[in-house]
Amino acid sequence: MPIVEIKDLRVTFTGGGKPVPAVSGVDLEVERGETLAILGESGSGKSVTLRALMRLNPEGKSRMEGTVRVAGQDVAALGRRELRAFRGRTAAMIFQEPSLALDPVYTLGQQIAEAVMVHDGCSRNEAMARALALFERVRIPSPERRLQAYPHEMSGGMRQRAMIALALSCRPQLLLADEPTTALDATVQIQILVLVRELQREFGLAVIFVTHDIGVAVEVADRIAVMYAGRVVESGPMREVIRRPRHPYTIGLLRSRAHGALAKGARLETIPGAPPDLADLPPGCPFAPRCFLATATCATTAPGPEPVGAGHQARCLRVDATAALLPAVAEG
Amino acid sequence: MNGGSQAATDPGSGRGGPAQPLLTVRGLVRHFALPGKLLGRSKAAVHAVDGVDFDVLKGETLGIVGESGCGKSTTARLLMHLINPSAGELIFDGEKVGSRELPLREYRRQVQMVFQDSYASLNPRLTIEASIAFGPSVHGVPRRQAVERARDLLARVGLDPARFAGRYPHELSGGQRQRVNIARALALRPRLLILDEAVSALDKSVEAQVLNLLADLKQEFGLTYLFISHDLNVVRFVSDRVMVMYLGRVAEIGPSEALFSAALHPYTAALTRSMPSMDPDARTEAPPIAGDPPNPIDPPPGCRFHTRCAFVADACARRTPVLTPAPAAVLPSARPDHRAACLMLEPGSGHPRAPAAPAAAE
Ligand SMILES: Nc1ncnc2c1ncn2[C@@H]1O[C@H](COP(=O)(O)OP(=O)(O)OP(=O)(O)O)[C@@H](O)[C@H]1O
Ligand SMILES: Nc1ncnc2c1ncn2[C@@H]1O[C@H](COP(=O)(O)OP(=O)(O)OP(=O)(O)O)[C@@H](O)[C@H]1O
Ligand code: SF4
Ligand SMILES: [Mg+2]
Ligand SMILES: [Mg+2]
Strand B249-255's sheet: what is its strand order? Predict the structure, then answer.
């Protein structure tokens, strides 16, 4: 049984005037020990989906529908106490900005030991020993000394490692990572990515990793899901999605990135137009107004997920047309 | 966004003429004092920027890269005069910033910035249209015109004004907010635009749109860009020249292509080798260098990179390297405007790989 099963997830923000359906029908599965990278348009609901897995969207101002099961538990049905145990022990989250997770007034050692004690009911000494082991595991140099440090005394990369250590402190089965390396330089980023890969193997962790960097997805992911306008428009094995993308949005995304081979002053390829108004989605394919393959049918018929390979699907009415493009979009 | 200094025939070439750098930075230093009790030492300070010299040429895009905490944002905030330097001076188009010829107020209008943190830089109580129109209004643009400019810029950064103009910052995704920030900075029609991680929160297709937009605006308004980012692919693509910082100092500076294809500084070389693979069958097995940059409160003596450098020699902990071009004998393609602060390049520095000192000086 997959550790994450999301079926027809819908998250609607009701705080403002018109309700905003930020996530409108997401289906995702993640197996134990598997890393899923979520790529996609900015504003397409990646963070909201991740937060839904831990019920972190503001409860009064948003509505969550559909089913979200993590390690067999129905996340929507958890009581307050169960939810507290769930957060940290079943699923834990790391962010781009560690200050969201780390408390500035306690040392890192205190924070990790506290989390361990609350969850495992062990003694402070045992908890401190665990904290030390975790710091060693995430390769923080001079870990004893660093346990006594406050978050602001550490570099960005160090804080990011400390946040990973904190997230792992209660031995979660699922790690949710929302752009955790975006603020780090390349030499530290690659260390964190390799670390995540090792931890995943070592602890059988499942990981969902949101990123805008296709290279990052290639480094960490077993599978990739691509989101657009509150839906998953393509998902499949990492190699397949990168080498044989089948949704026109994915194709556009892969083509638009800047890379070393580009001539100076060349224009980057872009996807014309702007993403749709979530509060007022067109009846057919939400990508149709921007799609280079769209036909009249696309504007009226909503595409369902079409299987295009082993474990690979695309929500597109014209997967035959994208298949014909394949040699042209494959990595050169 | 290319063009280099030869593009300085643009309308923005200004007073000092096209060959005059738009901005000259000399001996820039900024230390942040720490409360003494934190370290039990009273004089402890973060050496955020510790002696930085460079020029920004008219019409160019100068990229800045470097590890987290090396002082990129502090440099940017010093250039914006949002914080005061501990030492050093800025010359803008031939005139000293803060002098009678160029008072701060006058300078500030011409330099704008897009910040890394998309949230903190927008007023939560203003609609985004009002946020963008605010600057021009303050500078005397009539209200109707300011709003028109705001709506035009919203459309140009890919946010349909009909849908977005009336929204508040918390009703936008991170990427949408960052586009608002770009529109807001451009609303004042600056000559120098500092972009601090301005596209890092965007997806690749929106990023491409914004980069194309920045290139158009640059051409149209004769802008000069300082472009700070961790994404080396993007920096390489947009920059005419690139400056690599490490722990408050400049490690290397030079033409983008030369720097990325033949790095002179071991840190730059490690950076470029750390770029994530784009090939599913050639993932990075082991990180090219281990560890994190040392603490800027107590930076290592000599070359600041020596604690992580694969070529470290005894001299590296003793002698502070200065920016030096590669010796032509070692690198035939060496050019005088491509320099790095590494003892291996400095004749007679005492590093075993350094070229011999010239026989009799001068
Ligand atoms: N609290 C909120 N109230 C109203 N709308 C919201 C709220 N949080 C998010 N949204 C909207 O929901 C949509 C999805 O937002 P989300 O943060 O998930 O995007 P994302 O895919 O993570 O984007 P990015 O890549 O820019 O981080 C966006 O259109 C956003 O404007
Ligand atoms: N107001 C401040 N008080 C104390 N220290 C500061 C302050 N602002 C910055 N610093 C420190 O100065 C150093 C340089 O910070 P800066 O923000 O310039 O780095 P950066 O290169 O922009 O890093 P990043 O890539 O993470 O954005 C860091 O060690 C930082 O912690
Ligand atoms: S369904 Fe049609 S409009 Fe939508 S992506 Fe496929 S081809 Fe384009
Ligand atoms: Mg997000
Ligand atoms: Mg910064």
Answer: B111-114, B192-196, B224-228, B61-66, B241-246, B249-255, B339-340, B324-325
Query: Mapping DSSP to helix (H, G, I), strand (E, B) and coil, where does residue A73 land?
Result: strand
d(CA B168, CA B130): 10
Please give the ipTM for the structure prediction: 0.81
Residues 264-323 of A with CB under 8 A from B: 264-265, 267-271, 274, 277
Q: Which chain B residues have a beta carbon less than 8 Å from that of A213? A: 231, 276
Indicate the residue type of B287: P
Distance from CA of B352 to the nearest CA of A (A): 26
Instruction: Read off the tokens for B241.
Output: 């020249």
Q: Which distant-in-sequence residues (6+ apart) come within 8 Å of B135 by Cβ?
A: B184, B187, B188
A141 neighbourhood in chain B, CB within 8 Å? 291-292
Contact B68 CB / ligand 2 (< 6 Å): yes
Helix axes B204-221, B174-186, angle to 10 degrees: 0
**Touching A: B residues 219-258, CB under 8 Å:** 230-234, 236-238, 256-257
Which tens digits make up the pLDDT trace of A110-147? 988 988 888 778 888 988 998 998 888 887 878 888 89
Residue type at B187 in one-letter notation: A
Q: Are B275 and A219 in contact (CB under 8 A)?
A: no
What's the CA gap between B326 and B340, in Å, rounded? 8
In ligand 2, which atom is closest to the CA atom of A152?
31
Taking CB atoms within 8 Å and a gap of at least 24, the contacts of A138-141 are A138/A162, A138/A164, A138/A165, A138/A168, A138/A195, A139/A191, A139/A195, A139/B290, A140/A165, A141/B291, A141/B292
Residue B118 and residue B177 in contact, taking contact as beta carbons nearer than 8 Å: yes
Ligand 1 close to Cβ of residue A98 (< 6 A): no
pLDDT tens-digit profile of B37-90? 545 545 678 889 999 999 999 999 999 999 878 899 899 999 999 899 999 999
Does the distance separating the beta carbons of A139 and B2 come in below 8 Å? no
Q: Which chain B residue shows the shortest CA-CA distance from A178?
A: B201
Pairing of strands A174-178, A206-210: parallel
| β-strand pairing of B23-33 with A20-30 | unpaired
Minimal Cβ distance to A257: which of B204, B277, B287:
B204
Q: Is B117 exposed, middle or buried (0-12, 13-18, 19+ CB in 10 A)?
A: middle
pTM of the model: 0.85
pLDDT tens track for B333-345 = 788 899 999 999 9
Q: How many CA atoms lie within 13 A of A299 on its CB side?
A: 6
**Can you tell me the distance from the alpha carbon of A259 to that of A250, in angstroms, rounded to the nearest whole number?**
17
Q: Which residue has the tokens 């872009």?
A: A270
Q: In what order do the strands lie in the sheet with A73-74?
A: A20-30, A4-13, A62-70, A73-74
Q: Of A24-33, A244-253, B66-75, B77-86, which range is least confident?
A: B66-75
A293 lines ligand 1 (CB under 6 A): no
Residues of A in contact with B230 (CB under 8 A): 182-186, 189
Q: Is B225 helix (H, G, I), strand (E, B) or coil?
A: strand
CA dihedral B296, B300, B303, B306 (to 10 degrees): -110
If DSSP states are collapsed to H, E and C, what string results for A297-309? HHHCCCCCCEEEE
Amino acid at the residue B290: A
Which residue's CA lies nearest to atom 16 of ligand 1? A45
